[in-house]
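Researcher: Please generate the 3D structure of the following complex. Treat every line as part of one assembly.
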Amino acid sequence: MYMKNFIKILYFSIIFIFVFFSIDSISRLETKTNRWYQFQQIEKNSLDIVYLGNSHNMQGIIPRISKDILGLNGFTLGVPGESIQTTYFELVELFKTQSPQYIGIETFTLDINLSGETGFVFAFTDSIPVSINSLNTTLQSFTLPNAYNHFSWIRQHTFIWKSPEKLFDLYHRYYNNTKENSSELNFYLKSDGYYYNDLQITQEKIDYVKNNEKSNEILKMDSQTRFYLEKIIKLCEDNNTQLFLFTMPVVADYFGYEYSTLEYKKISQQYNLPYIDLRDNDFSLIHFSDTNHLTQLGALRATIDISNELATLFNLSINKDNLANYQQLNIDQYTIKKLTSQSSRFALLSDKGNLENNSYSFVINYGTQIKGGHIDPQSNAATILEYEKPDVFRMTILIENPNNNYVIRHNIYLDLTEIER
Amino acid sequence: MIFTSYLYVGFLILVLGVNSLLPKKHRWIWLLISSYFFLYTWDLKFCLILLAYTVITYFIGVLIDKSKERKTKRIWLNVGLLLIIGGLFVFKYLNFSIESLATVLAFAGVQTDFNMVHLFLPAGISFYTFQSISYMVDVSNGRSKVEKHFGKFALFLAFFPKLISGPIERAHEFIPQIDNPTPFTYDEMIENMLRIGWGIFKKLVIANRLAVMTNAVFDSGDLFQFSGIQLLFIVIIYAFQIYIDFDAYSDIAIGAGRLLGFKLTENFKRPYFSKNIVEFWRRWHVSLSNWLRDYLFIPLNFSSRRRKHKQLWQYINIMIVFLISGIWHGSAWTFVIWGGLHGAYQVWEAATAKIRKNILTKLKIDPNSYGHKFYQVLITFALTTVAWIFFRANSIIDALVVGKRILFMRSLYLPESWIFKTAFGLDEKDFTLALIALALFIIVEFSSRRINIRQELVKQPIYFRWPIYLLLIFGMIIFGYYGSNNPADFIYFQF
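Model: Done. Output below.
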């Protein structure tokens, strides 16, 4: 009798585990479209440079552009909110298939100690084959209260039952994530790990953050962070890879960065690591999607800057034509002007007047009452639009330079209520 | 550690596993350690308070037992009651008393500047206070033997399945089970696991969703934005929410207790099928009702047995018991009114019993007819629901606003967008699921009047019951309302 009941429980457990992992594997289709999955599709030993870190660099470095400028085949990798521990495990995984000459680590990883916290580490562990390394990563970040995070479908349970149709979409994305089956724009935005962020920060948001969310968190280089950084340095040395640190731009004063910049410099000097601080540069409002992430315009600028810095640091040659084309592509400021006092027509103008180098097209977002949009060379305006009712509209400008065939998608909020007044 | 967390599930599996491997005579050590660890996950301070209660109650029990004279026993009992109830008063009612006193003085024109005391409310204190009181009273009147083993006595107060929200157990029923745990068969094991699973399902899938809706209204800060019909709907939803929430907790507690070899008191017996308020209190929070009956109502009635107007005193005693029941639930006047309403209902029922019976006879209404029973159930549900308004409202004013807008509702119009798009913080899909799950719960409740569904399910063939088990487990995970959106802990945890 005892044995019979034991066998029953065993059978039930087997069925339960089978159903459990079947559902889990379906929901993991989503993570199989992420950059770690894409990374594994790359030809072995084909990368020259990898920008490793968190959302700061994944939304801030465009490897395709750095390749055009420096001639280095690159990829930007990491998970959101990445800790230095996770960076180490990612490097172990990276060296299994690639042997890049250069690896850059974004310094925000030094600020985060995720020991005992799951963070977004599952975005990495979900996407790589099961191995000792993936097990180590899971164990490093495992806590009992957050254990469910390691099961994709429990993490996304609401999404699964509320939008089962999206599973089909995931299936489609998973099996069609190739250049032939994906729109060209989507493909090149994603294929080298760069994540396109379509948000645009506003001055109100910056003011709000400065007044309400200013944090005293500053870099605290604890023993565990130091331990993993040293392991990373050793790992790169063993693989003959030049390691460097870099810091992505953030809105000024966010998270006590002035202080931490000095700390990053100290760390890089202490370990004799080259250091690139992109925050030294003059980034403006249109370059940020929020307080610490860049828009595509910001990413373009950051990539140009880091490419220049890398060229200086490692004596790399620069393709000056490509560099010039990308610099032209980068519009700095724009203003919106109403053309006549009577009509509802207005124009979008670049302050520097360099619009003529590029071609522009405009996507008026759904729900707006703006009628059409076109380029008007006579008034040197990028577009002239008509609207029926003053409101705040969102518009996407597609900026393209014919010489390098690269498209920048920049979202702007048109506050026509202000213009009307 | 919340009962519906993955952490608790893991903890329970570990405790059950180790407990089953240990010899019976040593299990109390493991259960005591587990219980204190369970409380420690909430706060270390809570463990220290419980330990203090345990030490006081234990030694008062021993002193009462050693006292030979009745007068000495009484003195020790009073000392014990003073300490235990005093502790509860300090932690739970001190600020309430200061506030109430300040309000009364303000009415009298005396301006005060009392400072509130910043104290924490130890988890489960209301429940183990009542268990301590019943133990000391039972030892003093000989109903219960004194427990000389400190560890086993400590387990009586700390046993984790019942620690935070009951059931309120009696020492003479619980302590003997420590040495002689009730064995269970394989079918009973499955049945109790099902009970735990059904409890978690009820909490995660139904009660948590209903909580989003009721919180969206009662905590909105502006009850005037809701129409009478909307408030009526929400008040009914709250009646189900509080029942399902507490019943879910009790299912998990009793199921876990049974798997550890303990039979805990059944706390709910389908209370919303009660035909009057007296019956409601025999079916609602049974362990509390029994406690109030045995340790408050009977002694009060006994002490007033020789007074004039015996019937009137009985009504007064009912009111006292229910007012205390109200204040036990929470340190706010809304709870006092809730208790007072239930007391008043019972007094009304007792005072008009003969009149109502005569009316039925004269109108030739069969009191056992289905229609009449249905009418009684409906009236009882309506009365308890009215009282729940005070139980849930953040203030008496809020409760009166809700009551007034329901009573004087001008239209039965339900905006289409309100029902089918978003309703009180839930989107269309969550709202629909909440109503479907509620309907499922009512069907199960209705069916349970005659059959024990869990026992019946266990008897079914494997191809029938296994898919149901799997559906229940996966239903919990997929349809559960938890994680960062978790709207509420178990309601009774706050008491």
